[in-house]
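Sequence in, structure out. Go.
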Amino acid sequence: MNHRSFRKCSALLAVAALITFAGSAGAQQSLSVGGTSTVQGTGSATFTVDMTNTAPVEGAVIALTYDPGLVQVTSVDRTALTNPTDAELFVPEILANGFTLGIVMDSGPPFGGQTIAPGTSQAIASFDVASTTILGTLDPNVVTGFNFLDGALNNPPLDNIIVQGGLSIGAGQGLALNGAPGALTIAPPPPATLTIAGGSSDTGGCVQILLDNDVGPTQGFVLSISHDPLILDLVSINLDGTATDTAGAEFVQTAFPAGGGTVGVVLDFGAPFDGQTIPAGQNVHIANYCYECVTEVTFSGLPVPPTVTTDLTFVDGVFGSPTLANVIVVGGQSINPILENGTFDCVPVEVPLEDTTFYCGPRDYEGTANPALNPAAPIKGSEGESVEICFFYSDEDDNMQGLQIATCHSCDLEFSSFDITGSIFDEVGAEFVNATFDNDPTGGCHMTVGILLDALPPFDGQSVPPTAVPLLIGCATATIGAGTCGTMLSVDFCDVNSGPGNVLIENIAVIDFESIQNFATIGCAVMVVPEQIFQRGDCNTDDKVDLADAAKILGWQFGGESILCPDGCDANDDGKINLADSVLIMNYLFMGGDAPPDPGPIDGDDGADPTADELGDCMGPDSAC
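Output:
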């Protein structure tokens, strides 16, 4: 028992001693609970302790109990009859399953002899109760009451009495103890509802998550919402301008799985545990989900494309581990609300552009269908590796006589060359090709390229043909710097002040001897991945080649086992994983057969695969940044 509870208990015992010392006298009198009320969810109500007395009352002890599984008393207060001026001692003690109260009207100097005059159903105390159970929407109402209980509450236990003429009157002396008519009816609350308010933007914006809740104050919530990743990117989940932020949420955890986003919020998570909640109410703004449209729709001289409307959907049991459900927390209980889904409109933006487009990406980007809707995949490479960054053009209507390219790139990429070999410009016979590289971070790193097809006599008008899909212009070579593993290094088209003369180089297409600039450009990026090194034959990635590796190959082929490094399992380096690989390992181990080729167990040194294949990335422990 803490000090405060000890002092209250001591005061109650003093009250009991003060008002019960003097024998007893009987009369037809009563204590009862007054009031009836109906609440929903965790609602609250107020009741009174009423006294009927035929003679003046000098004090009283109340011991009232109830079902703590249904209700809890939150406060016990004075009434007009027991205000501080008249009742000099008023000591309530709230317990787990009830409360006790001691009242002495005249407990100290100048001993003015205050009493409660005779009367019928006079309120001598009030108490507030809150529902502790939340019924389901289809559950019947629950009615609960309050009972006076002698000899059970507090320590030592107290009896219900009133004091008249210095004598205690209890149940044994004819004091009636009536819980009725006081009764609390607990009704199912109206269902809570979570709603995704619709959003609309030409490029992106935030949608509000709204809560209708009459169940009770919200102590926390979980949201789990999916979107179409081909149309939207979820860029943030925040609480800006929300009731959650106003209440002072102490725990906020967000996650961004592919195609969705989750957030878990606890309002009161840490000391001093002040009980923060979001008040019950309608259309309460609790969170923001902020999106960007993946593709900005552009057009020139064509009918306006339709607005793209995409669904935003509450999903249960999809995201997270363990999976999450959309819930709110009220009264320490999880409530599954009604879920009202929403939509987001990506509104087209009119951008009057030429149909020329410049792109960059991997070499196999050439010929990609619908390039504006399918941006290039990242180029992959490891720290210290030289990668190929290729550039492309499309123009459905015009022959192009030449072009300028100007890029700004991450200074963790060191550009060193540009080559048109294998491109349409090479086939046509470009007569002027020039590239410059600036890898100095001081002024920003960039590259410029100039290509003119017909630059020399006899000036016979070479040009590259119209094309609806990207065709290769040429490829630059760039080396990836150290300390970049796990990052994306951008390459963007931009205007550059280049060369000794600080000349402005812009991205232009030369068409009909004119510089065309108002066209789209689509940049790219280099994804820096761990260096793909391994030991051939080490299928279970434990840094050695033994019988377990042969078993792992068989388990993968026939038993559904997972593998981390496909190249390690390709023991014979034929670009495939099959029974032959396990046979080669067993012949090597037990029959004197050939060892797996480099980087194999003979040297014992992990290395990169010297043979090109399509087995995929090696994610073994040796392939690390």
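Check: Helices lie at 3-20, 243-247, 424-428, 547-559, 566-569, 579-590. Confidence is low (pLDDT under 50) at residues 1-27.
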